[in-house]
Design goal:
heterodimer; A: 353 residues; mainly alpha; ABC transporter involved in vitamin B12 uptake, BtuC; 15 helices; B: alpha/beta; Rossmann fold; six-stranded mixed β-sheet; four-stranded antiparallel β-sheet; 9 helices; 14 strands; globular
């Protein structure tokens, strides 16, 4: 038999570094576009000329830029990155590309935590309340998300395998429990709290402020920076729990840390931006198609693309029905839900679905 | 040396094996045989550290494996499981890389192509593992175990290769290829412990045979002593007559099986 000289790298994927650069460029471009889009007439071109030696920004323009658009951009990047990384982590943990904090009830748990903090936070002793301050809501959301994830792993994962059906059903049950408890709390809430709740549950970047960013950053930033340390363990976990142990991975540590990281990122993001779905599914899925499933590239890339996608969605949310503003959750669901169905369709018949 | 002292093994509270004491030597292929449900895979799980024994202990090169961290254990032994399902579309090279990173010893860019050639899958490095057939995937995971155990003798004594039915989904040519590779690993100073289904392949390959039946260790020793008519018939609960060709190990004829 004659061996044909097949091109060796015909199935090779693009170099991770090239993808990283492309993603950074995309993020910068979309960021600039986002900063130059809005009700006040401050265009991307105007920003570029102002910062390259042209006419400096007027006081009104500075106010729009630094107090409205920049915090909104920063919060969008942070929340999008947190949601995408939380999705990638959770998919690695459950060995399933359809796991997402929003769908499997972790978002609902985080929401319940946040609502509990809003309504019952006033019952805290004044000393404790002063200590926790504005961090109470993100921390309560993290706690709620964490408890939900722990319940989920207990219910859905048995013997190292996670059936997606069990996972989704557990997510529905968790969502229902959290929804019921949230409903009870709404009855207990007073007028001011009710306004906070409504605003929060809409899922929006509209309330963005540097203060809000400061409350969530201590939970989100460590996850974004440290999650690549879990990459090798999550790669090994893709072969199964026993196989990961054979490859020298401390499986229980990995699971515990991944659950904590998912809850911290998804919980804090939910606390400041409300329920925004599907970023956690769409972003890792697109990246796996482009650069493969290696978590060493996937996790940092997910942070970059997640942030970019969310500020892109936010631009759509605030321009498509201008001067009114669409809740951003509607935009991400419109883009994300069909992708979810598409993955489901392609994987139908494969093991695990 | 691998030793197990008075092991009792249970799954979900049900005792599967008890009173298991055995040793396996580096430089040899040790085969674990026995009928379906005799506890071969359970014993393997205890020897690799997956399953904590109810009583007794397992030592590898003199250390209790329960006291070794996953990291250190991975530097002393590699494992091929009966079945491995990969959750995401990793390429063959990425799968082998996991083995390379888990093991110790020198590595170079030629290692992956060399390992793939050894399992007759040269040129597949950049293909997603899901694009391969079941038998091909099994050989990739064998190559991954070889990547982890690329140094049969390391700083911490011999490296160990644990194989759970390595030949089960392979055609006859690749069965022979995998078993010969395992033999070579033993010849180079490593230790091989393998669960076997095919008794002929066992007789051809093993230096030491451990026969399990009814939750106990029925016999252990060289193939010629363990694979006898009496012991095999007792273990497998059917009349088995082994045959012998001059100057070679025992071989079986299924045609000769009684009721």
């Amino acid at each position: 038999m004659v061996a044909l000289p097949l091109p060796q790298r015909s199935h090779a994927r693009p170099q991770p570094r090239a993808v990283t650069l492309a993603l950074v460029a995309l993020l910068l471009a979309v960021s600039l576009l986002s900063l130059g889009t809005g009700a006040a007439g401050l265009s991307p071109l105007r920003l570029i000329t102002a910062f390259t030696g042209g006419a400096p920004l007027t006081q009104a323009e500075s106010l729009v830029l630094y107090d409205i658009r920049l915090p909104r951009l920063a919060m969008g990047l942070m929340v999008g990155a947190a949601l995408a990384v939380a999705g990638a982590l959770m998919q690695g943990l459950f060995r399933n590309p359809l796991a997402d904090p929003g769908i499997v009830g972790v978002g609902a748990g985080a929401g319940l935590g946040a609502v509990t903090a809003i309504v019952l936070g006033g019952l805290l002793p004044p000393a404790l309340a002063a200590l926790t301050g504005a961090h109470l809501i993100p921390f309560a959301a993290f706690l709620g998300g964490w408890i939900a994830t722990l319940i989920l792993t207990r219910v859905a994962a048995s013997g190292g395998q996670t059936a997606i059906a069990t996972l989704l059903l557990a997510g529905i049950a968790l969502g229902a429990i959290a929804g019921a408890a949230t409903g009870v709390l709404t009855y207990l809430a007073d007028d001011q709290q009710l306004r906070d709740l409504t605003f929060w549950s809409m899922g929006s970047l509209a309330g963005a402020s540097w203060a809000k960013i400061a409350t969530a950053l201590p939970l989100i930033l460590p996850v974004l920076i440290l999650s690549p340390l879990l990459a090798r363990a999550l790669n090994a976990l893709a072969l199964g729990e026993a196989q990961a142990a054979h490859l020298g991975i401390h499986v229980e540590h990995t699971k515990r840390l991944t659950i904590l990281a998912t809850a911290a990122a998804a919980g804090a993001a939910t606390a400041i931006a409300g329920g925004i779905g599907f970023i956690g599914i769409v972003v890792p899925h697109l990246l796996r198609l482009a650069t493969g499933p290696d978590h060493r590239a996937l996790l940092p890339h997910a942070a970059l693309l997640g942030g970019t996608l969310l500020i892109g969605a936010d631009m759509i949310a605030r321009t498509i029905t201008a001067p009114a503003e669409l809740p951003i959750g509607i935009v991400t669901a419109t883009i994300g839900a069909p992708v979810f169905l598409w993955i489901l369709l392609r994987r139908r018949g494969l093991a695990g679905i | 040396m691998l030793t197990a002292q008075n092991l009792t093994l249970a799954r979900d509270g049900r005792t599967i094996l008890s009173g298991i004491t055995l040793t396996a030597q580096p430089g040899e292929v040790t085969a674990i045989i026995g009928p379906n449900g005799s506890g071969k895979t359970t014993l393997m799980a205890a020897l690799t550290g997956d399953l904590a024994p109810v009583t007794g202990e397992v030592t590898l090169n003199g250390d209790d494996i329960a006291r070794l961290s996953p990291r250190h254990l991975a530097a002393r032994r590699a494992v091929l499981a009966q079945e491995t399902q990969v959750a995401f579309p990793f390429t063959v090279a990425e799968i082998l890389q996991l083995g390379i990173e888990a093991g110790t010893g020198p590595t170079d860019s030629a290692l992956i192509p060399r390992l793939l050639a050894e399992v007759d899958l040269a040129g597949t490095a950049h293909r997603p593992i899901h694009a391969l057939s079941g038998g091909e995937r099994q050989r990739i995971h064998f190559a991954r175990a070889l990547a982890q155990a690329r140094r049969p003798r390391g700083d911490q004594g011999p490296m160990w290769l644990f194989l759970d039915e390595p030949a089960s989904s392979l055609d006859i040519a690749h069965q022979l290829m995998v078993m010969r590779r395992a033999r070579r690993f033993a010849a180079e100073g490593g230790g091989v412990v393998t669960v076997m289904h095919d008794l002929n392949l066992t007789a051809m390959t093993a230096d030491h045979v451990i026969l399990l039946a009814e939750g106990r260790l029925l016999a252990a020793g060289p193939p010629a002593e363990v694979m006898t008519d009496r012991l095999l018939s007792q273990a497998y609960r059917c009349g088995i007559r082994t045959n012998r060709t001059p100057a070679q190990g025992p071989y079986l004829l299924p045609q000769m099986a009684g009721a």
